[in-house]
Design a protein that fits this description.
About 45% of the residues lie in helices and about 5% in strands. With about 180 residues, the protein is mostly helical. A two-stranded antiparallel sheet has the order 1-2.
């Protein structure tokens, strides 16, 4: 694992690990192979040197139409609402990038809480594609607020609309990882 000191490194490493998991799962594999680690290391280097970027949320938007409409947290199709991934009350944007489908139960249970901490408390894990969208939103916020080159330890204590330390690095349990939460009925 590289030495992580800045916000850019933290987000880059989280995103590179996600791409690593995505490449394995996308190929139908439940175990990491050499190619997945190569993807991770190239992407991380690219993100740090700014020769690569996380890209827009265009691909993430398409997911809303590729998969059947259901709660992105639990798969329920019951009384779906648009949920702000980064809560509105904390300053999350009111635009399509920050909006996902959530059932009424998840929507009200999550409320204004940090989405990753909320899932953790429910012993649930976010899907890979939901995390991808989320990291992009966090990255964009940090970019717009000049936080990317700051030391991570200086930023953790700031009042951010998300818990930056909740972002995972390596996703170990590929067996139970999901690309996307499918309808549960
Ligand atoms: Zn739900």
């Amino acid at each position: 694992m590289p030495e992580i000191t800045t916000v850019r490194e933290h987000l880059g490493w989280s995103y590179a690990n996600l791409a690593c998991a995505h490449s394995a799962l996308g190929a139908g594999s439940k175990k990491y192979g050499r190619i997945n680690y190569i993807i991770r290391s190239r992407l991380y280097k690219g993100l740090i040197s700014k020769t690569m970027s996380m890209g827009s949320t265009f691909d993430d938007e398409k997911i809303k139409y590729q998969y059947p409409k259901s709660c992105c947290y639990c798969g329920s199709r019951d009384k779906l609402h648009m949920d702000h991934l980064i809560p509105r009350i904390k300053g999350g944007e009111d635009n399509a990038d920050n909006l996902v489908w959530a059932c009424r139960s998840c929507n009200s249970s999550k409320g204004g809480r940090d989405v990753l901490r909320w899932l953790e408390a429910k012993e649930r894990r976010p899907s890979i594609l939901l995390l991808r969208r989320y990291i992009k939103l966090v990255f964009r916020y940090c970019e717009e607020n000049g936080l990317l080159n700051m030391l991570l330890k200086e930023v953790v204590n700031q009042d951010l609309p998300f818990d930056i330390m909740a972002l995972p690095y390596k996703i170990d349990d590929l067996e139970n990882a999901q690309l996307w939460v499918l309808p549960n009925d």
